[in-house]
Design brief:
2 copies of one chain form a homodimer. Chain A is an alpha/beta fold. Chain A contains 12 helices and 11 strands. The termini of chain A are far apart.
Chain lengths: ~350, ~350
């Protein structure tokens, strides 16, 4: 088991990464947070796969939320809070979010608002959830206008990432999660790229158990160092948006139905590589390296049929805008550069270039 | 104009109390917060009375929420956030909540969650809003199970209390608000009791303009000192719950229809006085003094017909419970004492005593 301590203004918290660590959740919670969780919240898929052993160990009846991005909304927060009230949870109670990023974002936000804030534990069961969603303190739900438009900075008291749960993840989701690993590696640990499995048939068997633990841990370490230095995204944390500007727009333009988040990010990484080259901050070799790192994750849904002008209109309404317009994070040969102004016309050109292949 | 600086972990903020200060809201906001509000949110009653001059000064079209406790719920938060999105508000935007405690609690919570938190200004237009709701950083909305069960600690960047707005307040609301002044005075400034107008016909004319400013300012100062020392209610802040344990139960038992909050608190102050005497922490003279301070605020809805056992069951479900059961704040001769265990049977007896008059 690898432990990474994340610094946070709201209180530091440990991230435990290991094979089978969920089996010890009751003991780990008691030892680290002082008491076991009073509630487990999950979704239907994870309930079937993993919730039984967690809930049994904790002797609680899990709350099962409807899964999927379209259910990441306030009603799920309210469902959790009302069950917590019915079960008598008070301000000293701890709750456990067990699932992917949608579950941890939603339940983290519920914990942030229930009785104005209670402690929570994140137990991510997807690769994306482990390397991205569960660390950093961002919680929230969607509005009809877009993703994560309401939420809170409310870091968990503990993160338990059991890499064994990745064995049950559909390969497509596993590959999508690897796009965030590639992103993290590019930002500050290029040698991590060597650990990322490649090919069209990436699966859980592509790495050993300890290989998954190491890759997840190194990805989390990168993110944890960035968010510790800039929890509320005044500057450095923006680097984590590498690949996300076009990525979010692609997701929004297809109503979040065509791409898994990581697949859209993989396209976004390629777009950022092209723009980095155009802006003179990335070498031709660097452009090639980043694009092929994204491409080596295997096939992803096409963008050929999408209208670049329409897609890029979604960039302008992304919440990362500020009073000065849309700023991109662009890759350099050894990391990223922030706040690069990219005109919409240029974004459209780059998307056309990606469509040509 | 009187300025009180409130210390807060999230950043200190000033409270400005004065006659006519709302007229200068644009300039005050620009000077103190750095820029004027991009949005004004209010309710229908306040929109008619005050929003026009504020909105005109700021050149914005106010967002008008449905008023009343039953509308203090997430849908009002979502309405505000979606309008802010449509109006292009970003993370650097500031919003203004103009109205009573329901408006400032709801809009403060919307500000706490919009894009994971933006700055807000509270402009309370009721006495209760000025002396209680707008200071201290508690925001939130109701769930079907009870009041303020979801929310956030999210202090405003500025509070502007224009005591002239009290001239438009129905006398019953004015009297109800005075119950919170009596509470604050009892906690730590007994001489403030001498400023509180008395009698069945209390109205705005019962005090001079500067009398209102002084009384409101002294009440806010008491609250601000308490919340600065204990923002998240680990201890001292509980003292502000004086009179609220039975008060909340009376409101809940009558579906929030019979009593204004301050009226229920006035009953709660009397109950706390009786219990203080019973527990030996308050003298007979103190009991008499506190009860008559509450009674001098004039008539309030009766409790004769309510079943004390039923009312007191609502105490046990109040969110101020902790793992050890229900703790009351009880008055002493020169302040309050926290965490006094009161058995339900004793609370019932005291309510029966109040019913006998």
């Amino acid at each position: 088991m690898i432990t990474i301590d994340v610094r946070s203004a709201a209180g530091d918290y440990p991230v435990l990464i290991g094979s089978g660590v969920l089996d010890d959740i009751s003991e780990l919670s008691a030892r680290i947070v002082g008491r076991p969780p009073r509630s487990v919240v999950t979704d239907a898929v994870v309930a079937r796969l993993h919730a039984h052993r967690v809930a049994a160990a904790l002797d609680v009846d899990p709350i099962v939320l409807a899964g999927g991005e379209s259910n990441k909304r306030w009603s799920a927060v309210e469902t959790s809070c009302r069950r917590w009230l019915a079960d008598g949870l008070d301000r000293s109670s701890i709750v456990l979010a067990l699932g992917g990023g949608i579950v941890t974002d939603t339940v983290g936000f519920a914990a942030a608002t229930y009785l104005r804030g209670i402690a929570w534990i994140a137990a991510p069961t997807t690769l994306l959830g482990m390397v991205d969603a569960a660390v950093g303190g961002k919680t929230g739900v969607n509005l009809p206008e877009g993703k994560n438009l309401v939420g809170a900075f409310w870091p968990p008291a503990l993160v338990v990432a059991d890499t064994d749960t990745l064995a049950t993840l559909p390969p497509r989701e596993l590959r999508a999660g690897l796009a965030e690993v590639v992103k993290a590696a590019w930002i500050s640990d290029h040698s991590l790229l060597d650990l990322v499995p490649v090919g069209a048939d990436i699966g859980y068997d592509s790495l050993t158990k300890s290989g998954w633990v190491e890759m997840v841990a190194r990805s989390i370490r990168i993110k944890s160092e960035i968010v510790a230095d800039d929890e509320r995204e005044a500057g450095l944390r923006k680097s984590l948006n590498l690949g996300h500007t076009l990525g979010h727009a692609l997701e929004a333009a297809t109503d979040y139905r065509r791409f898994l988040h990581g697949e859209a990010v993989a396209w976004g990484l390629e777009a950022a590589a092209l723009l980095g080259r155009r802006h003179g901050v990335l070498s031709a070799h660097g452009e090639q390296e980043l694009r092929s790192a994204a491409q080596r994750l295997g096939p992803r849904p096409a963008i050929d049929d999408l209208d670049p002008e329409r897609v890029c209109r979604f960039i302008a309404t992304d919440k990362k805008r500020d009073a000065q317009g849309v700023a991109w994070v662009l890759p350099t040969d050894d990391g990223v550069v922030l706040d690069q102004r990219v005109e919409t016309s240029e974004a459209i050109e780059v998307m056309r270039e990606l469509q040509r292949g």
